[in-house]
Design a protein that fits this description.
There is one protein chain. By secondary structure, the chain is mainly α. Helix content is 84%, strand content 0%. It has helices at 2-38, 41-75, 79-92, 97-102, 113-131. The chain is flat, with a radius of gyration of 27 Å. The protein starts with a helix and ends with a helix. It comes from Panthera tigris altaica.
């Protein structure tokens, strides 16, 4: 329940930020119209620089919000639920995930890592034999 509240709070904060950005973009558009009507290159350049800065600020805010929302939902999900979901999906698709995970050596990053190594070794030997 707490993760849902955090997610909703993050979405509301994102909406508030977007509303502020929309307001700033409207102001920039008006300023750009005024600068273009006078054809003052310095004013146009200044308005465009301000617009770029606001877009960069929006990108930073968006990244921070997405990261915090992601970490909030990730940290609040119990490991048991994650494990049961993996097992459920494996059963639905006829996979033997638990057997493969239990056979995984310490420090290995993937289930098929040892078979990939043996295939690479075999290919290396064949290449060496072809060179001789």
């Amino acid at each position: 329940m707490a993760s849902r509240v955090d997610a909703v709070a993050s979405k509301v904060q994102t909406a508030v930020t977007m509303k502020g950005v929309t307001k700033n973009m409207a102001q920039v558009t008006k300023a750009l119209d005024r600068a273009l009507s006078t054809m003052d290159l310095q004013k146009v350049s200044a308005v465009m620089d301000r617009f770029e800065q606001q877009v960069q600020n929006l990108d930073v805010h968006t990244c921070v919000m997405e990261d915090s929302m992601s970490s909030a939902t990730t940290l609040t999900t119990p490991q048991e639920q994650v494990d049961s979901l993996i097992v459920q999906i494996a059963e639905e698709n006829g996979l033997e995930v638990l057997d493969q995970l239990s056979q995984l050596p310490e420090g290995a990053s993937a289930v098929g890592e040892s078979s990939v190594r043996s295939q690479e070794d075999q290919l290396s030997r064949r290449l060496a034999a072809l060179r001789n």
